[in-house]
Design a protein that fits this description.
The protein has 120 residues and is mainly α. The chain has one domain (16-119): Up-down Bundle (Four Helix Bundle (Hemerythrin (Met), subunit A)), CATH 1.20.120.340. The chain is built from 5 helices and no strands.
Length: 120
């Protein structure tokens, strides 16, 4: 309960940059949890974790993009769509390699976003 209140407080007080960073962190955590669930054969946790990851990608990161801002935004949108498809595939087939691929794709984008925050 306390962690939920803390998260809600963080969200209310966060800058737009910090909100996106929190989405990247939540996505990364969801994929780590999904990998563990697949390795352990925990179908329920796998489903919850991958559904959460897809929602963060689609309703959070992709929805926040301003597609008229240029090619980078469109490229990120395409990446997020691809990752949603891969994670949905991973959920249906318990495909650990698909989750790992998405983690590899996310890492440089996440690191770049965090480094922007440090520079600002």
């Amino acid at each position: 309960m306390y962690s939920k209140v803390g998260l809600e407080t963080d969200v209310l007080n966060a800058s737009p940059h910090r909100l996106v960073a929190m989405l990247f962190d939540g996505l990364s955590d969801a994929m780590v949890q999904a990998r563990g669930a697949i390795e352990q054969g925990n179908v329920e946790l796998k489903g919850r974790s991958l559904s959460r990851a897809v929602r963060i990608l689609d309703e959070g990161l992709k929805a926040a993009l301003k597609l008229d801002a240029g090619p980078l935004a469109r490229d990120l949108s395409d990446l997020y769509v691809y990752m949603c498809k891969q994670l949905t595939h991973a959920n249906l087939h318990s495909d650990l390699a698909a989750v790992e691929e998405c983690q590899r794709l996310l890492q440089p984008v996440r690191e770049a976003w965090h480094s922007i925050g440090k520079a600002a």
